[in-house]
Amino acid sequence: MTNSLQMDSPRTAVSNPPVQAMDSNLGERDLVRRSATSDLPPPERQLTAVAKLIDVSKCIGCKACQSACVEWNDTHPGVGENVGVYTNPHDLTEDMFTLMRFSEWINPETDNLEWLIRKDGCMHCADPGCLKACPAPGAIVQYSNGIVDFIHENCIGCGYCVKGCPFNIPRISKADHRAYKCTLCSDRVAVGQGPACAKACPTQAIVFGTKDDMKKHADERIADLKSRGYANAGLYDPQGVGGTHVMYVLHHNDKPHIYADLPDDPKISGVVQAWKGATKYVGLATMGFLAVGAALHGVFAKPNRVSHEDEEGAEEVLKDKLGGQSEERA
Amino acid sequence: MTNAWTDIKNTDLVVVMGGNAAEAHPCGFKWVTEAKHHRGAKLIVVDPRYTRTASVSDYYAPIRQGTDIAFLNGVMKYCIDNGKVQWEYMKAFTNAAYIVKDDFAYHDGLFTGYDPEKRDYDKSSWDYVLDEEGFVTSDPTLQHPRCVWNLLKEHLASYTPEMVERICGTPKDKFLKVAEMISECSTPTKTMTSMYALGWTQHSHGSQNIRAMAMLQLILGNIGVRGGGMNALRGHSNIQGLTDLGLMSHLLTGYLTMPSEKDVDFTTYMKSREFKPLVKGQTSYWQNYKKFMVSFQKSMWGDKAQAENDWGFNYLSKLDVPAYDVLRMFELMYQGKVNGYICQGFNPLLAFPNRAKNTEALSKLKFLVTMDPLETETSRFWENHGDFNDVDTAAIQTEVFQLPTTCFAEEEGSLTNSGRWLQWHWAGGTPPAEAKHDTYIVAQIFLRMRELYKTEGGAFPDPVLDLTWDYADPNEPTPEELAKEINGRALTDLMDPTDPTKLLVAAGKQVVNFSQLRDDGSTASGCWIYSGCFNEQGNNMARRDNHDPDDTGAYLNWTFAWPLNRRTLYNRASADLNGKPWDPTRKIIEWDGAKWSGYDVPDIAPTAKPGEVGPFIMNQEGTARLFSRGLMRDGPFPAHMEPFESPVANVFNPKMRGNPVSRIFQTDADQLGTSAEFPYAATSYRLTEHFHYWTKHNRVNSALQPEFFVEISVELAEEKGIDNGGWVRVWSKRGSIKAKAVVTRRIRPLICDGKPVHIVGIPLHWGFTGSAKKGFGPNSLAAFVGDANIDTPESKAFLVNIEPSTAPKDKELVS
Amino acid sequence: MNLDLSRRSFLKLAGAGVAATSVGAMGFGEAEAAEAAHVRPFKLATTTETRNTCPYCSVACGVILYSKGDLRKGEKADIIHIEGDADHPTNRGTLCPKGAALKDFVKSPTRLQYPMHRKPGSDKFERISWDQAFDRIARLMKDDRDANFTATNNAGLPVNRWSTTGMLAASATTNETAWATFKFAKSLGIVGFDNQARV
């Protein structure tokens, strides 16, 4: 059964995809945000907000989500090596939009081992730091259903989205120097399907639907977990980024960081947040400068990043326009 | 499986022991998470490692590999001692009340009749006391000291929580918690399911592991009910089908068995198989054996199988040993007594224990034929890959044929899943280059051999020349033709036995199911238990109606389940003595005063009155066996036995090594290691990212788990100076491998019989072909010895040593 | 269009016009802001669906093969995607990490293409035709059977055992293939006949 396209957004991932030619249900008219664009017209309609809910307590760490993601998106992660962990590849890459991160945690209250397995990937923030940081017009967009998507043709590969992301998600391709991350399978959602990972997930630890429904589902799961002794079970839908369209049910919601450093209270960097209108471009330059000033740490330390010439260019811009003020922003 | 995957949602307690369902069967495990989510079910995992299944469990208890019998006997004892027994079920549906012969006993880890020279038991005392009519004697009050129930209690007496801790290394409090949770399922309205796999079978006492749990389930009243059962999670997509169809040395189709040399003629063969009831008035279904056997012979040899020639009985091989199982065949090969070998979709170089021996064995073959969609290590066993396959290529004189076959996506037919569903699938892709269907390849070799026999004659050509091969295109029989042949048909008009004027099935028509098969040569059926799969209604295996009235999980109109489309075996036992469901919310079938009916096909004659016919109709008793008489080689009750290679001695009999009646060849006995030399207890297993040795050919799975590793505890790593992610060498008496070390808290040392036991975990997915990094497998190290009843190798428990090491070298680097 | 603008040119442009308040000054005027927002074209459009079953474990999940081309119309069918079948009662559309990557099993670079033959002592496989392979295998098998067949035991009982050639059958083949294989092996008297159920 395929979702009726009468509905503006799919309600589930558990359906078989259509094979007839269909028009995409997501496009320019559905944008609520567009990177480096100040005068975006309001969307023609408001789509129902969607969300992916990841119930960590149901997840068996099988990596079906990774597999389904690679197959659906036709990416080509390389064969790495074992470095003593189950997390493979060892980080998100431009070819691996989602990653099971494994943490062995001894619960101090019970002295029992808990093997915490968290599916990492784009959280599709309501207030997306990547989009706000992006200097390339239309390279990052947000649809009214909540999906934050990269329009690769518009991407300039500057890596600011990485810096702007409170979850450290986007990765820049070494091949085409463009940024990649989970699209929430926008191509599937656009024809009434849920994301490939949610469809594949064997235990349905990953479910997909409207954000309201997902919150209700989470309530049910949290009640079950509490009945099993997880007093701090709860929903991770961090308000520091305006809530997210990928949410977690955590057995220990009082300490998200035990799940492979999931931020306890993620926020968009103050630098990115302060950018408004014209200052954005100043801010961008600032960011470039700061990166240089930080001795090529962070995003700018990564390969295939800014050439020396570029850095000098950025620095010059900064000097010209701001003098030494920018350093105060650090 | 007695039940189906979809039935697991009906359970209250899932016990995963001897398996790792979340990891090896993730989509089946979905039904565990359903039961947890929607019924509030609990999940217990008992395993040497904290597995992915354990990561979502409600309770985890560690256990030393190979000691499951002690644990389960301990649980049985706990249940009995605490009155946690489904009394009514146990008394009526098991053989608990039957009286056992006086001379049967158990001492020092051995049952009566042990002969150390023969490594076998004289099992004559392991039986019931029969009355003059040949029926069992019993004491329904369970007072008689020699009744099965009291003998069982006596047998279990030593399995105290302290003893369980001593043998298994499971801390007493953890054992008791598990025992308590399990014991709660003794009420008629609470049920438990057992999900197990090769963690139980790959032991020299594997059959008894399973038997111990089956007995526990019977005591708790959990067999035949929704959400209960003994659920063997089979490995391959059609391993159930190939077993059902008898592609094994000791089997014919539908669990009919190969004759042995003792079966001098058909009458003798039948005598030991048509089991007469041991309880008056009971149904002993194997009394129909002859109908199935004759129909099978007719299916094989058609008109050449006639009453006059004992239905072609002499066309069958007669075994001189219990089976030419794979261990025996590789031993014979090793001795130079095998010349040719065909590996169809099988990679024995990585699958069988003691790889060095297997390599030597394969090197002695004159010819090897492999049929596979993928490269296999077996087909390239002669190729040097440095440390990964260090062979002297030029010295290997084996001629090898590597034949490319199609894969699932390019072929049509049915596969039988663990839940016995025969599901049809269709081809959707064009095979690559010259790849051919297996059926075509088999047909070509067969037809050419037959032609040679026609033209040249040769050794006993009759069974080959007379084999039924009347397919429209003999070069490639179609899946439909073969499926119809398996189902069976009438060879002459079949008249209704109760009304000889009424035509039941016209000659040439498909029989509706095995109830129409006859022993007079008027029917043919390739595999009786599959009969009904493709009858005059059409291909029932291709049915795709996924409605499930009242959400019982039965899905009666989805494909076809053997036997007779029955979804839960022994489902008569889901109802009480009056035919009412033990748990009305979990009804399967019910007696309405005249017949049985409900959500499933009743596993009893539809008009057999409750109280008259027992639910276990495949047994001569009509009841299930807590005491298995002489039907298993290693005892009528499960008794603790150590693995052949164990870090501790058997506490009941320190001189006893492994299973006292397992067959072990001399060269392999000489290659057993001791704990002095090899102090660590190794085990082998699958990882969820891979399927056997196939998915290392797949770029995606190779990326998800790229490189061979072994897992050890933080404690052992510290003791041996091993770094996480560093190289280690692991070796046993039979071989040596190199691997990356994964140092983890998921494995912790156990204290067994007072001393610490370290566990080394070795996954099995790597080799020297494919996309993943080259690596080794546990079979380089495991011992060449198997289960006493079925000779499944003891791949789950063996001894190794370990040390920090350096990377293995590939050929290029060596030369 | 500025699709091919590299970062470097962006920075240079930025350097020239950063004080401006409109993006146009950066060389990305709205009018030429490259691609409009769009999602990837839905790749299963106009593919052919075929119902199949996962060949790995015994859960036997339902899968759908999506191909360009339709075998049933006599066309060449190239499988471009495989996904769980949501209509299937057991897996409900889900798949494990192996099942979800089935396409890359079908398309594995180590899928065998042609019959190959390795001569005794050789260090390589060489192409051989199917006919050559079948004839040679049949010859080798018949010669071995004729030379080593045990027709009767010491007591003169016909025992019909051929123990010098063995066979392992594949527990991922269909029941129908298995039945054909069974007939082949058992009629020849191959007693060393097993499948993965043994191990």
Salient structural properties:
heterotrimer, A: about 325 residues, alpha+beta, Alpha-Beta Plaits, 2 domains, 4-stranded mixed β-sheet, 3-stranded antiparallel β-sheet, B: about 800 residues, alpha/beta, Dimethylsulfoxide Reductase, domain 2, 6-stranded mixed β-sheet, 5-stranded parallel β-sheet, 31 strands, globular, cell membrane (chain A), metal-binding (chain A), FDH_Electron_Transfer_Unit (chain A)
Summarize the structure.
Chain A is α+β, with helices and mostly antiparallel strands and 330 residues long. Helices cover 26% and strands 15% of the residues of chain A. Chain A has helices at residues 64-73, 129-133, 160-164, 186-189, 196-200, 211-227, 270-274, 278-293, 308-322, 326-329, and strands spanning 31-34, 50-55, 99-106, 113-120, 140-143, 148-150, 171-172, 179-180, 206-210, 234-236, 246-250.
Walk me through the structure.
The complex is a heterotrimer of chains A (330), B (815) and C (199). Chain A has 330 residues and is an alpha+beta fold. Helix content of chain A is 26%, strand content 15%. A four-stranded mixed beta sheet of chain A has the order 9-2-11-10. In chain A, strand 7 (171-172) and strand 8 (179-180) form a beta hairpin. In chain A, helix 8 crosses helix 9. Residues 288-330 of chain A have low confidence and may be disordered. By secondary structure, chain B is an alpha/beta fold. Chain B has a six-stranded mixed beta sheet with strand order 25-27-26-31-24-30. A five-stranded parallel beta sheet of chain B has the order 3-2-1-8-9, sandwiched between helices. In chain B, strands 10-11-12 form a three-stranded parallel beta sheet, with no helix packed on it. In chain B, helix 14 (326-334) crosses helix 16 (355-363). Chain B is globular and about 85 Å long. Chain C folds into four domains: 1-38, no CATH class; 48-106, N-terminal domain of TfIIb, CATH 2.20.25; 114-143, no CATH class; 149-199, no CATH class. Chain C has helices at residues 7-17, 103-106, 130-148, 175-188; strands at 48-53, 62-68, 78-84, 116-118, 126-127, 150-152, 158-161, 165-169, 193-195. Chain C has a three-stranded antiparallel beta sheet, with no helix packed on it. Chain C has a two-stranded antiparallel sheet with strand order 4-5. In chain C, strands 6-7 form a two-stranded antiparallel ribbon. In chain C, strand 4 and strand 5 form a beta hairpin. Chain A: [4Fe-4S] cluster 3 binds at residues 122, 125, 130, 165. Chain A: Keywords: 4Fe-4S, Cell membrane, Electron transport, Iron, Iron-sulfur, Membrane, Metal-binding, Repeat, Transmembrane, Transport. Chain A: It comes from Tianweitania populi. Chain A: One of its GO terms (biological process) is cellular respiration. Chain A: Residues 1-18 have a biased composition (Polar residues).
